[in-house]
Amino acid sequence: VIEIESYYPYSFATDICLADWESSTRDLRCPGEENDQEGFVILLENPALENRNENEPALWVHPDEVSDGTIEGTYPRIRIEAGAHFRTWVGCLKGYPNCDLTFYLDAITSSGRYIPLGQWHEVYEGLVKEVDIDLSRFEGELVQLILGAKVNNRDFNDSHGFWFVPRIEISEE
Q1: What per-residue string of b and e applies to 96-133 under the rule 16 or more CB within 10 Å gives b?
Q2: Does 5 have pLDDT greater than 70?
Q3: What global pTM score does this model have?
Q4: Positive/negative CA dihedral, 31, 160, 162, 28
Q5: Exposed, middle or buried, 71 (CB in 10 Å: 0-12/13-18/19+)?
Q6: CB 110 within 8 A of CB 80
C-alpha cells in the first residue's frame, strides 16, 4: 500500500479504495491485480506516462477485455465547496502503443440525478490531456463523482490508461 500525502481538499488517489470499482462484467477489488482480464485499478506512485515519467500519484486503469469494455470508480459523496474544480491529466501509460480509450467524468447529485461532466478521447501519441471541470454548479451539495474509461478498439492488451493526480482544488477566482 502506497501512502500519499494530499495537498488538496480531495484527492482521488489517496481515496482510491474508498471508491466502488467495477468493469462492464463485474465488481472489482481495490487495489486490483495487474493483468486481470476482467479489469483493474492500481495506484502508481511514480507513473511512466506516455510522454514523461512522474513522481506524483496516478490511477492506473485497465478496462475489462471485452468489446466496449469499461472501468469506473464511484467515489463516496463529498460536499462541493465554492470555487471547486476537478483537475487531472488523462492519457495512456508508456509502453502501450495501441492504447485507445475514452475517459469520462460523471456526477450523481444528492437527489440521484446522473450528470455527465465530460469525456476525453486519448490514444498513444505522446500527448496527455489536461482536464479542468468547474464544479461550482454543485456548490453546497453532496455529490458522488465517477471516474471512468472505455475501450475504443479491440486491442485490449494495450488499453492501459491513467488519471494523473486526480483531485479537487479550490480556485480563488
Answers
A1: beebbbbbbbbbbbeeeeeeebeebebbbeeebeebee
A2: no
A3: 0.94
A4: negative
A5: buried
A6: no
